[in-house]
Amino acid sequence: MTDITTARDYDAIVIGAGFSGLAILHHLREIGLRTLVLDGEDAIGGTWWVNRYPGVRTDSEYSYYSFSFSKEVRDEWAWTERYPSGEEVLAYLNFVADRLDLRRDIQLQSRVESAVYDETSNTWAVHLADGGTLTTRYLVSGMGVLSQPIYPDIPGVDSFRGEKYHTAEWPREGVDLAGKRVGLIGLGASGIQIVPVIAGEVDEFHVFQRTPNFVVETENEKVSAADMAWLRENYDAVYEKAANHPFGVAMEPAEHSALDVSAEERRRIFESKWNEGGFHFANECFTDLATSHEASELASEFIRSKIAEIVRDPATAELLSPRDYSFNGKRVPTGHGYYDAFNQEHVHLVDTAETPITAVTEKGILVGDTEYELDVVIFATGFDAMTGTLTNIDIVGRGGRTLRDKWLADGLKSNLGINAHGFPNFFMSLGPQTPYSNLIVPIQLGAQWLQRALRWAQENDVEYFEATPESEDWWRAETERTGRQTVMYTEGKKAKAWFLGENIPGKPEEFQVYMGGGQVYQQHCRELEESGYASLLHRVDAPESVDVSESVDA
Ligand code: NAP
Known about the structure:
The protein has 554 residues and is an alpha/beta fold. It has helices spanning 19-30, 47-50, 71-76, 86-99, 189-199, 225-243, 263-276, 279-284, 293-310, 314-320, 338-341, 388-392, 403-410, 440-459, 469-484, 487-495, 518-530; strands at 10-15, 35-38, 106-107, 112-118, 123-128, 133-141, 163-166, 181-185, 204-209, 216-217, 334-335, 347-351, 357-360, 364-367, 370-373, 376-379, 394-396, 426-428.
């Protein structure tokens, strides 16, 4: 073992006490690392603690939206709904923390402001908002991928005299919307969940839509004791199926191209998967809804026909039907009565594509010359995705360079989204360029990969892991190459999707996630491991970097 003389407070500090932080703490403890999790909030749960808006629930089904690594948790936890509510997921995470005795190594109300790497001692100093500093050998981000909320660049947002809330900053005590005139801006997965739930509470509801979405409706059945018993028996198989699926869902791969079947057969398959609901439609109908524009357009046409069936007013139905991009151009949300909510008389869809919102005023929202007077404005306007949390604080690597400056100057670069050149012993759970997926799978597999990597580092006297520049170039090229083979590129550009960085004015257009498939990504991670972590062994004093082209890019 090396490096025993440097006194540090911890072997590993993990930022964020959500799914990632809990999984990493458990796995690093298992290899004897003194690990601390820091979180700025006053409770654990990460995204499930801060996203408390009405209607928040998973878009993934319970069976694969949970950890599989703990037999105790699997045996003792029982889900109650097919798509668990945010409250239930939060209860699950608290159960995990208690059952695995994680709380004693979690420090809440500890917001990290910066983390600075010292080359001489190979140590990270983590600076907290309260003025404290902690030192660690390994620094791990578990800060979440959709955790840096953004408000729209509409003039006057601060001038509104009524109440205003962002879905990701919803007050803990809840908001009484009864009898109020409410306006909602934003119809991604968050806005789509909130619409049907608050429509039943408010007096008048104005939904301001700039870009419509393709929403796949679903039923949300109760999970029975028998369902849980079956899952406990089959958990490993379910998890393996999800881990081998491109999008991390435990679903059967589709068999045919949408273009290879008759129109009648296509309609039958679309209809059956629409009836199964949620992600089943995107993942189980046909092989090419994410790769062929023609196939994606056929799926779009089917969903438009469903919207026309559900929404009684033809003009509203038409407005809700995306025409400017096709299916998969945005992350497909799961609906729980979304379209049907527009059949209520007090729910008004306001098109802001033709005439954009001009301003938020003292009294409400101005669209062209029409002012909508409101008591409450809700912003469901999304996040600075994937990179936002990492660039919002100062993560300072070699030579005093921040991660923010690196990505600004060089473009988004990382080795498999795990580590970046210039940032020794800094690791990211769900870093940018990791899979576009049900996130629990890459979180768990990533925690297990990190456990093996750090054990190997200890056994082999490796003082630090640092991505070689070549590995970053390779992974950036691979991320862009595979992403551009999907309709997420062509259609995502049109739809201003967050996964391309298009939702933030001025953010460069780059794939923020890896679209090449979760199972392919995991294969790359295994190859990196089998290579003896070759492309993570950059050394400043080494005259030549390790050639990763054979060892990793298989
Ligand atoms: P989002 O998908 O980025 O949607 C943001 C919405 O705000 C869009 O409708 C966008 O309109 C609108 N918007 C932003 N700026 C605007 C402006 N200046 N004027 C008018 N409209 C504006 O954000 P999100 O709904 O929070 O979802 C983000 C991601 O979080 C999802 O894709 C999903 O991955 C995750 N999420 C998951 C769940 C779940 O699994 N249960 C729930 C919620 C979120 P345009 O489309 O016109 O830009």
